[in-house]
Each structure stands twice: as C-alpha cells, then as structure tokens.
Specification:
Layout lengths: L1 H39 L9 H10 L1 H31 L1 H8 L16 H30 L5 H38 L10 H18 L2 H10 L5 H6 L1 H15 L5 H33 L1
Length: 295
C-alpha cells in the first residue's frame, strides 16, 4: 500500500519536481556564467606569435579537442535557446502575423491558394521571430567562445558590441517596416492599375526577407568600426573605393531583394549606401583612437 501511495505521490509531484529542476539548472548556469565572466576580465591570455601558437596546437592536439568541445557546448546552448524563443514566437504567432500584415489591412487580406501555404508561412515567421529574439544571446555565446583568446580590452569592447549590434539590428528592421514598406507596398500592389490578390507565402517572404536583410545591413557600420579598430582596414581606402562599393551593394541588393523590380532594389540600395558612408566616418574615428593609443 505504501508503494502505491509513493507512486501516486511521485506522479502528482512530477511537474513540480520538473519545474524545480529547471529553476535549479538555470540558477546554476547563471552563477557559472557570471563566474566565467569575472575570470575573463581578470585573466590575460598568453601573447604568443601565430606560428608558435600553431606549433603548440600541433604538439598538443588535446588542447584543440578542448576548444572543439567548448564550441560544441556553445552551439548546443545557442540552438536550445533558439528553440525556446521559436516556441514562444509560435505561441504569439497570430499577433506577430497581425503586425506583419498590418500595412495591407491585416491577416484577412491574405489569400492562400495552396493547402500547406499557411503552415509554411507560420513556420517561417516563427523561426525568424525566434532568431530575432535570440540574437543577443547568440552573440553572447559567440563572445564567450572567442573571449579567452582576446585581450581584456578586446573582451570589454566585444561585450559592449552585443547590445549595440542588437540595437542596430532592431533599427534596421524598424526602418524597413516603417519607412520602406509603406513606400513600396502601395506601388507594388497597384502597379499599372492592376489589383493584386496577396498570397501569404509571397507577402511573408517579401516582408521577412526585407526586415531581416535590412537589419543585417545595419550591422555594417559596427563591423567596419571593429575592423578599423584592429587595423585591418583603412578609412581612406574605403573612401577611395566608393564606386566599387556601390557596384557591390547593387549586386547584393539584387540578390537579397525578394522581387526583381528596380523599385525594391533601390529601396534596399539606398540605406546600404548611406550606411557605407557612415561606416567610413566610424573608420576614421577608430583609426584616430588607434593612433592615440599607439603614441
């Protein structure tokens, strides 16, 4: 009888024990993370030339395996976190779709013509929303992997870059949604006076592609600033090669533009060209700081 009551109690308490285990695991992970961060801001890596570091890795392959194992853990945590954020996005998928389709009058304005079209749209939006929410953590995991091999100053700069990169990505998506889409959609939906029946797959592909790639494009100034700070590129070189840069931007815009019309291509090119010249200014600032530190 006692065994029966014990089994019943274990079944009843199973959800609570699971919640307690999750809370303890998260608490342990947070404590370990903060402890590792404190160590990263205290320890200074050994400054060895690249040939010596390569020779050391060849002589001690177990050290390389440790790095591969650490990378595996970072990738696993990143994927797990993105699964969680994607699941959260799936719960609120109707609200997200309502926000995405607001420029054309809401979800009711969409007309699906294929059986699985709506399901594919939901999965695409949930994945993109999950990635956007998880982006700061994904960058943090990348920082944790790279930080042990960086100087203390580079570690601090990398940690500061995480919220900056997130803000730039959000600004890019906001620019695409509030500036580019209200300009492009009326033109595209009523071109030549032809009324367009909007399909979920084509509209969501257009919208999410535009939001994502403009968000990525807004990261460009931060990347240029980081490269200039490390002395890998020069602002003067970027300025002298502006014509080549515009051609490359045009090619990239043609690749990432969801449609083949020049209007959308120009809408993508415009902010990217502006960001390129902003990046040149940031590169000049980074070079000035680098020269001051070198003197």
């Amino acid at each position: 009888m006692r065994k029966i009551f014990h089994s019943i109690w274990r079944i009843i308490s199973a959800p609570f024990r699971l919640i307690l285990w999750v809370v303890k695991s998260i608490s342990k992970w947070i404590k370990t993370t903060f402890k590792n961060m404190q160590a990263l801001f205290v320890d200074e890596p050994e400054d060895a030339p690249l040939p010596d570091a390569f020779a050391k890795a060849v002589e001690n392959p177990m050290g390389l395996l440790e790095h591969i194992n650490a990378l595996r853990k970072h990738i696993f945590r990143s994927v797990l976190f993105m699964v969680i954020t994607t699941a959260i996005s799936f719960v609120y998928i109707r609200q997200i779709l309502g926000w995405l389709t607001k420029p054309i009058g809401g979800i009711e304005a969409l007309q699906a013509i294929e059986v699985t079209e709506s399901l594919g749209v939901v999965m695409r939006v949930a994945l993109l929303a999950g990635f956007s929410i998880a982006l700061p953590y994904l960058i943090l995991e990348l920082w944790f992997f790279a930080a042990p091999g960086l100087k203390r100053k580079a570690r601090v700069q990398g940690l500061i870059a995480i919220p900056v990169a997130t803000i730039l990505f959000v600004l890019g998506m906001a620019f695409a949604y509030y500036v580019m889409m209200p300009t492009a959609l009326p033109f595209l939906l009523n071109f030549m006076g032809i009324k367009t029946a909007v399909r979920p797959a084509s509209y969501i592909k257009f919208t999410t592609g535009l939001l994502f790639w403009i968000g990525v494009a807004f990261e460009f100034p931060l990347v240029i600033f980081a490269l200039a700070s490390m002395g890998l590129i020069q602002a003067k070189m970027l300025l002298n090669q502006w014509r080549v840069a515009i051609v490359i931007i045009a090619i990239i815009s043609a690749v990432i533009t969801p449609t083949i019309d020049p209007v959308n291509m120009a809408l993508v090119m415009g902010p990217m060209i502006l960001l390129y010249f902003v990046s040149i200014g940031l590169a000049f600032i980074a070079q000035g700081k680098r020269q001051q530190e070198g003197t």
